[in-house]
Amino acid sequence: MELSKTYSPKEVEDKWYAYWEKNKFFSSKPNPRKEPYTVVIPPPNVTGVLHMGHMLNNTIQDVLVRKARMEGKETCWVPGTDHASIATEAKVVAMLKEKGINKADLSREEFLKYCWEWTEKYGGIILKQLRKLGASCDWDRTRFTMEPSLYDAVIDVFVDLYNKGEIYRGYRMVNWDPEARTTVSDEEVITKEMASRLVYIRYFFPGSTDGLTIATTRPETIMADAAICVNPNDDRYRHLVGKTVLIPLINKEIRVIADEYVETDFGTGCLKVTPAHDQNDFILGEKHGLEVIDILTDDAKLSEKAQILVGEDRFVARKKIIKMLEESGNLVKVEDYKSNVGTSERTGAVIEPKISLQWFLKMKEISKPAWENVMNDTIRLIPPKFKNTYNHWMENVRDWNISRQLWWGHRIPAYYLGDGTVIVAKSLEEAVSQAREKGLNVAAEDFTQDEDVLDTWFSSWLWPISVFDGFKDPENEDIRYYYPTNDLVTAPEILFFWVARMIIAGYEYKGTYPFKNVYLTGIVRDKLGRKMSKSLGNSPDPLDLIDQYGADAVRTGMLFSSPAGNDLPYDEKLVEQGRNFSNKIWNAFRLVKGWETGAGEVPVAAIKWFRARLNAAIAEVREHYEKFRMSDALLTTYNLIWNDFCSQYLEMVKPAYADGVAQPVAPETYNATIGFFDELMRLAHPWIPFISEEIWQSLADRSAGDSICIQPFPKGGEADAGILGNFEILSELVSWVRNTRQSKQISPKESLPLEIRTTAPERYRPLEPLIMKLANIGTITYAHEVSGMTYVIKGDEFGLDLGGNLDTESEKENLQKELEYTLGFKKSVEAKLSNEKFVANAKPEVVEREKAKLADADAKIQAIREALQKL
Questions:
Q1: Which run of H or E residues covers position 173?
Q2: Rg (CA), the chain
Q3: How confident is the model at residue 660 (pLDDT cuts 50, 70, 90)?
């Protein structure tokens, strides 16, 4: 067949992905004869498009899935999207605003219609983009958290947990996002250091010009103050406890109270207590029975309870109040100050602590199995360093605020009667039925359903079960076969509010873990160490990268330096390296396919060596996979193909030239090389699925509907240590001869005689043809003493007769330098072997390796000294 000179990823990738989909290679059905391998995708937001974090995460998932498929497992990778309440509602509100429509003017049903239109238009974009990456998901199984079956599962779980007494409704301090006008979880609050101002305010005693000074960064909340608090052990203020002071500007009297919570050396030692607008103040207020006055509206403007500046935005009010305090004589001073401020991960708005009536899930008891089974490694976190983070979170777990003040999402199934009676039921009909069972004479129109929806995570925590309809039909074939799943690949920042919660749900509803291993990726960062984001403009478009370099190049480029749990310092040069890898493979393939077969010598030693090297590399790659060392598995594969196969093996076996024409290679050589290429492509397929398929299909006549993605993953075999050791000598010897030619300016075309002093000439007999070919050696003789320029490898001495090209003084100088280096190396090995701790803790094979190094160093030192004596 005619092969193009250059590899064209675009044509190849579109062709083979369509082929894979057409032949349903990614589809899965329960098969009792096969071991299942199941992965559920971390569902991206329905509003989302592919970003670099998705690229990293989904490439790792695809590598694991493709390898499992090749191992003969029944592989099921379930894709899907999350409805993303806050993000989607914000997008729809913005879209409506552009059309001149205000959400407040719409009914709930009208607004939800727009949400569904948005979802149907944009919701599948990211899943289509994942196909460009090569993701081998079972697309027939695509799920969405708001589809009927998954919606019902969420409602069923809410009702079940409420009936168990695990869900309750109450007033609590929550994180309020005034832009989205909803609560957000602690984990969705991003703390940022911001420039602020520390305002010192004087609270006068009634009828006096004396008073107490407090320092605050939030002077706009003084109207909600309920007390001034001092430390009971602070001699400056102890006598004032029980007295009252006046809140500036509104002249309301509040008490001075005492509590050891106040730090005497912070600020002035006096603290304004504002229970409605600070979490710690709320706790202090409950302890001392203080009044709770919320002076902010849901969009963070001053309400009528503030008495002044009503309707002003909180930040505008802050500036105005500072000026008013100055005019009233209550302002002492203002200092520049850096403060840590909580912001909403979704909208970026500054979070307001707010007292609100919300729904909560009790977490202390329900989370215990999830805590214990991660800490005892029933579920493995990779890398295990994240167990400490997980332990800290679970040890200090707080009740989960599960209600959100939005319309897009799973509506809370709570129904209210006018007298305040609450009925939690799956539907209005069931609520009416329950109420009547309790003796209440009510009809459907007497009920009002809760306006709030559930936190998005309250649906995705059920994901590994709900995608298999495990709530709708708990004993269905899919859930029994595919659950628990095998590996979860996700980001550390959602370890608690997604991973931990899925584990909780798994033990609560299936009595076991939802997955066995959790591989935690790092964050993709730019060269300056900044997290990649659209707002910073430092993130490339993944689809542009695929278009420019090819998906295989981007996949390998993302993973060349991405160990589990560590951030990935992204550099486009890594993707270029990935493209070069594809080109290297393609050029090697063109070279081999261009060979003619005929009579020729079979390079048996080269074929045996590469077989041993391939076996050793396969074993190494398999071990890396087992330990989730993904980057290491890729690099071992990369080095095997680039260095051992392309740079060394093909150089050893490629045909000789006579009169500028390539000679034929023996059929045995060609067949062995094609066989190696087949194994290498199968080994590399999980990383580079497209080019490996293209080459594999061209290596031999394939039947219609066949694919590399369902071929067996290489198992390897015994690696002959003797052959590998001999070829290490060969490689070092050839490098020395080539470097010597270069340093002495001897043409590569000029053949040289080689002498070898060794006690084991049989080691080199099979290697002689390769030594002569690769180093252009004319003759090889075995001698008791070698002359000319010498070199020692593993105790054997090699000599090149350079004739008049040998500079004796220069050679002495080089040998002396080599002797000094080898003596230093020997000293370092001796130090390691004399370290009792190292010898006791290292693996036996590692200790033996160090002993072998020491023996080699001794032999080399002896040979160098002998060579010096001859000069």
A1: strand 167-177
A2: 36
A3: low
Residues of the chain with CATH 1.10.287.380: 751-870
- CA dist 614 and 520 (Å) reads 30
User: What count of other Cβ atoms lies within 10 Å of the Cβ of residue 807?
Assistant: 13
| pLDDT for res 255 | 96
Unique residue bearing structure tokens 């000029």:
750
Q: For the domain 542-719, what is the CATH code?
A: 1.10.730.10
Q: Which residues are bridge partners to 357 per DSSP?
A: 171
Q: Which of these, 493, 529, 527, 499, lies nearest to 515 by C-alpha position?
A: 499
Give pLDDT, residue 850: 85
Handedness of CA 246, 249, 251, 257 (dihedral sign): negative
Helix (H) or strand (E) holding 388: helix 386-395
Q: How far apart are CA 205 and CA 227, in angstroms?
A: 13
Location of structure tokens 């998005």: 456
Task: Give the residue-averaged pLDDT of 160-169.
Answer: 97
What are the residue ranges of CATH 1.10.730.10 in the chain? 542-719
Structure tokens given for 596:
């003619």
Q: For the domain bounded by 751-870, which CATH number is listed? A: 1.10.287.380
Question: Average model confidence (pLDDT) for the chain?
Answer: 92
Cα gap 520→540, rounded to integer Å: 23
CATH code 3.40.50.720 for 182-353: no
Please give the distance of CA 343 from its chain centroid, rounded to a whole number. Answer: 23
Q: Match 């330990």 to its residue by tokens.
A: 627
pLDDT band for position 627 (cuts 50, 70, 90):
very high
Q: CATH 3.90.740.10 region(s) of the chain?
A: 182-353
pLDDT tens digits for 121-151? 988 899 999 999 999 999 999 999 999 999 9
> What are the tokens at 50?
């592919």
Tell me the pLDDT tens digit for each residue of 527-543. 777 787 766 677 788 89
Mean pLDDT on 717-732: 90
Per-position DSSP letters for 403-451, written without gaps between them: EES-SSS-B--EEE-TTS-EEE-SSHHHHHHHHHHTT----GGG-EE--
For 492-543, the DSSP string reads GGGIIIIIIHHHHHHHHHTSS-S-SEEEEP--EE-TTSPBP-TTTT----HH
pLDDT in tens, 90-113: 889 999 999 999 998 999 999 999
Residue 794 pLDDT > 80: yes
Say if residues 369 and 416 touch (Cβ distance below 8 Å): no
**Start-to-end C-alpha separation, the chain:** 58
Query: Which pLDDT does position 858 carry in this prediction?
Result: 84
Residue entry with tokens 């003493």:
785
| Opening angle at CA 272, ends 268 and 275, nearest 5 | 150
pLDDT value, residue 407: 96
Residue with tokens 């708990």: 474
CA dihedral 490, 491, 493, 498 (to 10 degrees): -10
Helices (H) and strands (E) in the chain, counts: 28, 31
**For residue 247, what is the DSSP state?**
-
